[in-house]
Amino acid sequence: MILQALTQYYEDLVEKDQIARPGWAKAKISYALCIDTEGELKQIIPLIEETGGKKPQPQQFNLPAPVKRTMGIASNFLWDNSTYLLGIDAKKNPERSMKCFKVCKELHHTLLDGKDNDVIRGVLNFFDHWEPSNADNCPVLKDEYDAIIGGANLLFRVNGEFVHDNNDVRSAWQDYYDHIEGDMRQCLVTGKESVIAAVHPAIKGVDGAQSTGAAMVSFNASAFCSYGQDQSYNAPVSKYAAFAYTSALNHLLSDRKNVQKIGDTSIVCWAEGAEPQYQEFTYAALFGQEEEGLTEDDIRDALAKLADGKPVPERGLEASRPFYILGLSPNSARLSVRFFYRDTFGNLMKNVNSHHKRMEIVRPAYDRFNTIPLWAMLNETVNPNSKEKNASPVMAGATARAIFTGSMYPAALLEQTMLRIRAEHNVNRGKAAIIKAYFLRNQHNDCPKEVLTVALNEASTNPAYTLGRLFSLYEAVQEDANPGINATIKDKYFNSAASTPATIFPFLDNLCQKHLRKINTSKRIWYEQQIRKLAEVFGEAYPSRLSLPQQGSFNLGYYHQTQKRYEKKEDK
To answer: Using CA atoms, how far apart are residues 217 and 362, in angstroms rounded to an integer?
Structure first.
């Protein structure tokens, strides 16, 4: 299903002329080797472009598709690194470099012999006359020598014309690519009889994977070679389909603006028809990515319409459009599919909208997000002091999948959030929102709906929720009695109050009475009234122990009451 969807996306991009056709691919080139018709190297031209204040990057060219390299020697046509085009590199293995140069030379003669124009003559003469052993003494290479042998990609330019733009050269490559012989079988992707790809092109751009590219489909162990079929003949995919799906995926991954990260997973998404507004809206609605001309009110209104199955014509969005989300994680030289989601765009936005409603909770004035993006939500499960700032990959993937499909949140999301609360002795907006959303979707009697409100529910008599409110009031009394105190009861007793209230709340009651004596009469009376009202819920004794869902109720009560306190201060 993944390969079929990517192949269809490739064909949609081809129709819009936004991607290279079969046999061609985008490649980053750092230098042009300028030669004349006799094949003499005349000049080296850097092909570096500025990228808006960032580090200059090599230019991209539409070139003959690269070969898949493992440990063997295989050359690209018309472009490659210095090992193949010049027979030199920084690896200090001249014998292997010479073999690479000879393979490259043979490939160009195979494709271009028998064809005659100035550009072709220049390329063939270069390979016939160039001596890698004399490259160190070439004055043209002198200024850029270290950069060139360091692995930069090079291409040819003859008398001011890029060789890959020459019609005769392009025809020679296309004929060669289209008529490569191979095993004819039925393709699992297209269903047609086609030449099967022994190995699939590499996929680049997944963070953490090999920079030279990794494979999403590959077989190189005997355990996977059933019925004597090795390499990718074990699951036959045609050369066309292999090129199409990898080109489409590389196209998605090449635009870093359209690649989102959660944990170690790189996420890309696309709609049938290859219309970019669907991607842009998804990244804004789910990941909080800012889009020009798209405010939070616009997102909220559009989400509501799409959730009801209605189109958003001003944004060019249709609820019925098929939509795909793919999450990829690095796995050595391969890629792991963390999740793959297919549905209509309207259903996806309905699930996202429901998730945002579940996450809605009273927010502090300093919080800039009206809705909490997925990355910010997952960051609440990470130790801010650790070197590794990514959320657990398995938990992050399961959480994303739950949001996309509208299914239950993983238990690990709640566990990691509660672990951070116990470690930090604090319940912020993000953590409180996670607890609220989790128990709204994964319902539990110990954390009922009456406590899962956006703001403080003063009518609730849930014991755990009331304990959280009471602890917040005790903290407020202490702060009023001792302004600027370094360590509050939250720092010392929060965890024990949330887990074993019967052992700590009697002590906190006595401590609160001492603090109340230091506060002026009118404020003291107000505090006493509020505390008495909450204490009536428990009668003679506090609960001896709170379960994990009850601790969630406690944390929500604490957070709601604390935000109410801050609200009072702002009103005054």
So the answer is: 46
